[in-house]
Amino acid sequence: MLKVRASEFILPKAADVKGDDACAYELIDNELLIAVLCDGVGSAKRGGAAARQTVKFFIDQFKTRPTNWTIEQTLISFTKHINRILFKESMTQYEQIELLTTLCVAVIEGDQLYTLNLGDSHIYLQHHDTLELLSDDHVMDEEDMSHVLTQACGLSENIDPAVTVTTIAVGDRLVLCSDGVYNLTDTSTLHEQLCKGLSAKLIVNAITKGHKDHERDDASMQIFTVESLSQICALKNLNLPIPESPKKGDLIDGYELIEPMMQHERIWKVRKKETMLVMKFPMSADDAHDLDEFVREAWYAKQINHRSFGKAWVPQKRTVRYYLMELIEGNNLIEFLGDKHLSVDNAIALAKFLHKAEAHLLHLGLVHGDIKPENIIVYREADSAGTVFKMVDFGSIVEIFSTDSRAGTPSYLAPERFSGGNINESTELFSIGVTLYWALTGKFPYGEIEPFQTPTFKTPKPPSHYNKNIPDWFDAIILRTIAVDPNNRYQHYSEFFYELKSPENVKPFYKKDAPLLERDPLKFYKTAFFLLLGLNGILLMMLIS
Length: 545
Fold this sequence. Notes:
Elements: E1 3-11, E2 21-28, E3 32-39, H1 47-63, H2 71-93, E4 103-109, E5 112-118, E6 122-127, E7 130-133, E8 164-167, E9 173-177, H3 179-182, H4 187-195, H5 200-208, E10 219-228, H6 231-236, E11 251-252, E12 255-260, E13 267-272, E14 275-280, H7 288-303, E15 312-313, E16 323-326, E17 331-332, H8 333-337, H9 344-363, E18 366-367, E19 376-379, E20 388-391, E21 398-399, H10 425-441, H11 472-481, H12 493-501, H13 516-519, H14 521-544
Antiparallel strand pairs: 1-10, 2-3, 3-4, 4-5, 5-8, 6-7, 6-9, 9-10, 11-12, 12-13, 13-14, 14-16, 15-16, 17-19, 18-21, 19-20
């Protein structure tokens, strides 16, 4: 996870003016930092407006940038786009350049710092005992013309911006500032102030102290101290090739490829010495989105350390892109059952197992995302008398409350997942409930749902309708986990597990808006009896009178 300590400040040239500088930053999904600083050219009528418009454009666009674009591609494309907008607006409204601003953009992703600048605002990186200037000043070479910009945002219709890439580390400081800051100090003094941990406001105030209003320029500054870096992004940025077509017998880092485990041949059974393992490659050798998903999957997999899952790890010394998993010999739940149903005792054990697996993921801020019989391996251990379960498929695991996850199989998805709802404990419990329902009955409570189908969720029959061995309390638990309305469903794993352990406390399941006859038949008939008794009494009195 990327964490930065941020500080930014803008001091206009005088108290009675708005100023032409603008800056902002955004930490996106705790993995990417985008920082933008612009110094609107004072000689242009709309320099300040251009600066503010450019800053807002970058922050807004980076939040929705295409996921398959590289950072370099994104920076260059967005810079060219806002440049054309400013230039054409100037020509349309003023017939000359009036929307003109310098531009500094910095992006941190993983352990890489990407920078781009137009004009003479500065980008620095403080690393250990050095303060390095990463940007170039785009100004005239002649000394008396050094204030004239040769490149700026909005200066010409076509530009050719360049991106610089630098490795960054925890403890480094990224600094963006306008010429109103660096023209009043020197690199050595700025370095000392940064080493003291001073904020942008304190540094700007110290530098501008003693300079009268209107006799100096606007002074703007951003400081970002890196406290931690996104390990996922750092793994993605490793320069590792992806095998296009691995073949049986290939040797990769001492692992021999024995046989593919899936038709797409991206998951292989491999052997090193006498140990059999599983090796997984990215699905595509040239798709940035596939690579992003694979790296995230590998990172999540290596964080999971619970007996409900097989072990997974990413070898440090790899020559190609892959990760390894423990080989679990067994059958998935569908293969294990064949045309039989799971016994009630094994179904209860499965329910408790699924709770433990999901509870561990929740501790990591994750959910499985695709609970179904195909992802549950059943086997017997040598020292175990009963059936043992393992969860597989790290590829579906996502952060809890994700809304853009494609994980899941339609027949097991909660209704709200079909309308873009987030993935959470309650939606995962729905999948657990459908899995238990199917394992005990061989049927889906809402029918089998095909991909791209818009399902309808009618009232399901209790699982005991198909399997008379299911006790009432377990029947109620399953019905509550598969409730269509989330308000009628368990909200948390702990509620589900408590009732699994305490059958005597499980109440019959009914919808909160269900009629009294369905919720409490005995109470309904008692109430009806007394109402009829009262009505008969009234009628009797009327007859007597």
